[in-house]
Write a structure and sequence with these properties.
Blueprint (H helix, E strand, L loop, with lengths): L5 H17 L9 E7 L2 E6 L9 E5 L5 E6 L5 E3 L8 E5 L5 E5 L11 H28 L1
Helix pairs in contact: 1-2
Length: 142
């Protein structure tokens, strides 16, 4: 049986990855986000705009002590007493999605459009595959 070279293996893996990525029947993962709507109200949603109706929210003070916990309502909202010394909130939907919010911190990652984040991820993968192919060719020449 003829062995495939590293370059051909990388090309096959790259093509398989792209086919899986762009296959319309696949389910793409999405990012969970927890945000404070106003004092006393948090919302848990995914980056595609849908709300999580199953997330559990835990609120912490600055010392890391749990000050409140419970489930969101059907619309993805979690209400809490606004007099609580809220510092950090964590949401978990029980399906592998987990989000965190910290008072005074904003995530610039969420401002980047989803398609651009995907493009950067694919570009990094292709760069690594191209570099490995280049190094494989250099070894054969030397």
């Amino acid at each position: 049986m003829k062995k495939l070279g590293l370059s051909k293996k990388i090309h096959i893996i790259t093509i398989a990855f792209l086919l899986i990525l762009f296959y319309p029947g696949t389910v793409s993962a999405h990012l969970m986000i927890i945000e404070q709507v106003e004092e006393g109200l948090m919302v848990v949603r995914y980056d595609d705009g849908t709300r999580s109706a199953r997330a559990e929210v835990t609120l912490y003070d600055e010392g890391g002590n749990v000050i409140s916990e419970g489930k969101v309502d059907r619309e993805g909202y979690y209400s809490y007493d606004p007099s609580l010394p809220l510092y950090r909130a964590v949401a978990d939907d029980g399906m592998g999605h987990r989000a965190s919010w910290v008072r005074g911190e904003e995530s610039l990652w969420l401002e980047i459009p989803r398609w651009l984040r995907a493009l950067v991820g694919v570009s990094i993968f292709l760069f690594i595959a191209s570099y490995a192919s280049y190094r494989s060719g250099k070894r054969k020449e030397g």
